[in-house]
Amino acid sequence: MTNDPSLSGPETGASVNPNADPATTTRATPEGPETDVLLTDAWLKRYDDERARLRAAQTEALKVTKPLLFAALTAAGITRVTVEFDGSGDSGQIECIAAIDKDDAPVELPAVMITCPSATMVPTYEPCTETASGQRLVGNTIQTGEQTESVAALIERIFWDFIESRHDGWENNDGGHGECVFDPGENIIRLEMNERYTETNYYEHEI
Q1: Secondary structure (DSSP) of 140-185
Q2: Alpha-carbon distance 200 to 186, whole Å?
């Protein structure tokens, strides 16, 4: 999925999750081919192990990335960045990204590029006659390296990694909403997540 170029401003349009799990979709999307998964206990166990390795690699990368990002925000006079997100029905997105200065006035994110470590999970497919698409997801490889991106794109990436690590599948069913706060003064990235759910009361009577 692509990054919205408008993210250089203090407030942006919706941005969808570039790290969405391909195992959860069986339909073709603009971002990639149709993907089917034949779920087994072994596959699910391997997937859990892959996610754990990904989270560990992302945690190590953030140790370098966070100081670089906060230094760029501080140099631009930014005291707080808020990422608002919302989603349900298996679709979640960033609604807007807003930055403010010490006087709580809106400011634009700095137009600088940052090079920092990154970790991603790359899917592997194989032909399969048992699925409608003729292929299936068989596993994932954890790839690490360096990536150069804008401050806005980096904030997006950190947010997606953060929410996936704490609330994987947060956009499913009734979904959830909230905000992720980047506070360079406190040296904190805080995720505030509100989970929706439907409550049903069933009654049956006979006489």
Answers
A1: EEEEEEEEEEEHHHHHHHHHHHHHHHHSTTTTSTT-EEEEEEEETT
A2: 42
Query: In this model, does residue 12 exceed pLDDT 70?
Result: no
Mean pLDDT of 105-132: 91
Q: Rounded to 5 degrees, what angle do the CA atoms 147, 153, 154 make?
A: 60
Predicted TM-score (pTM) of the model is: 0.77
Q: DSSP character for 21?
A: -
Tokens found for residue 100:
């403010």
Q: Can you give the C-alpha Rg of the chain in angstroms?
A: 19
Distance, CA of 67 to CA of 154 (rounded, Å): 12
Give CA torsion, residues 88, 62, 75, 110, to 10 deg.
Answer: -40
Residue 83 has a pLDDT of 98
Closest by CA position to 144, among listed 82, 42, 83, 58: 58
